[in-house]
Amino acid sequence: MGHMLNDWDVVREYLSAHGEATYVELRDVLTARGYRTNSVAFLLRVKRWEREGLVVTISRGEPAQTYVMLLTEEALLSLAERCGYPSVVVDYPDGDASLHIAGSREGWERALPYLSRDGVLKYARLALWEIEDSDASGVPLAPEAHTVRNGNDSQLQLPILEDDSMPIVIRAQSYEPLPTGEYRVVLSAIEEVDTQYGKQLKWTFSVPDENRTLTAYSSISPSVKSKCMQWASVLLNRAIGAEEEVDFEKLVGRSAIATVMRKRKDDGTEYNTVDDLLPLRKPPKNEEDPFA
């Protein structure tokens, strides 16, 4: 019996042969090879590959259609064009070298062969991702900030200080469950996780007024009536149409009202659950929601 390729190998093989493909085309290829996945789960899978620097996604056409392609010099140049050919510094993972890319098409065209040769195209992709996230949120990165990357590709924004001191401030947090009620929350993270019930979405919410963090889980279902789609609709502050592709990672940073319940286990331990999300009411003055 031959060795069965994993889903990434199948996708990489197809993209290598065809150059690019839509989400639907890739899902059809995986289905034909015996893999089963719904549209939401597959979209999250592609986003994970993109974060890992394996693929890029580019939207074009009218109406806009998203295409997936392998991370190549040509694909990265297209992304740089979309971002306006920004000037960026690509830090090599060994920490001993960096490459400054001039803010022009010519600068990117000259730099890409070196990035490809040194195997660091993905780090330039991450730099563009920061710019795209900044543009999407409307909050630009501070010009006096450095992007520091370690060997695990984690990123940390460090402001330049006038001296070498760096204050360490930790705000204490209570673990006493919140009373049952409604609380303004901000989605701080969302990820696909393996649970005893199979793959689910893990939603992490911050409660700004209480300095608390809450977690909730939902199934990964493309049905507009599913919990994950209904919560996405609340966070987007609009209805989600059939066949619409929802980028769940872009929900991070959005606000809603959470219905929080305080419950008790058989052993007497109390805990919180997020039973539902409601549209954000008009916030008080000086607390305007930047994503509303």
- Strand-residue proportion: 25-35%
As a percent range, the share of helical residues equals 25-40%
- What CATH architecture of the largest domain would you give? Beta Barrel
Count structural domains.
3
In order across it, which strands form the biggest sheet?
10-9-8-11-12
Largest beta-sheet details = 5 strands, antiparallel
* Averaged pLDDT: 77
Which fold name is given in CATH as the topology of the largest domain? OB fold (Dihydrolipoamide Acetyltransferase, E2P)
Give the C-alpha Rg: 22 Å
Task: State the shape.
Answer: globular
List how many beta strands DSSP finds: 12
* The level-1 CATH class of the largest domain: Mainly Beta
Structural class: alpha+beta
Low-confidence stretches: 134-168, 283-292
Order of helices and strands: HEHHEEHEEHHEEEEEHEE
Summarize this structure briefly.
With 292 residues, the chain is an alpha+beta fold. It has helices at 7-18, 23-32, 39-51, 73-82, 105-117, 121-137, 227-236, and strands at residues 21-22, 55-60, 65-70, 88-91, 98-101, 145-149, 155-159, 181-195, 198-207, 212-219, 255-264, 270-278.
Structural description of this entry:
With 292 residues, the chain is of the alpha+beta class. It has three domains: 1-70, Orthogonal Bundle (Arc Repressor Mutant, subunit A); 72-159, no CATH class; 181-278, OB fold (Dihydrolipoamide Acetyltransferase, E2P), CATH 2.40.50. Helices cover 29% and strands 29% of the residues. The chain contains seven helices and twelve strands. It has helices at residues 7-18, 23-32, 39-51, 73-82, 105-117, 121-137, 227-236, and strands at residues 21-22, 55-60, 65-70, 88-91, 98-101, 145-149, 155-159, 181-195, 198-207, 212-219, 255-264, 270-278. The strands form four sheets. Strands 10-9-8-11-12 form a five-stranded antiparallel beta sheet. Strand 9 and strand 10 (212-219) form a beta hairpin. Helix 4 (73-82) runs antiparallel to helix 5 (105-117) and helix 4 (73-82) packs parallel to helix 6.
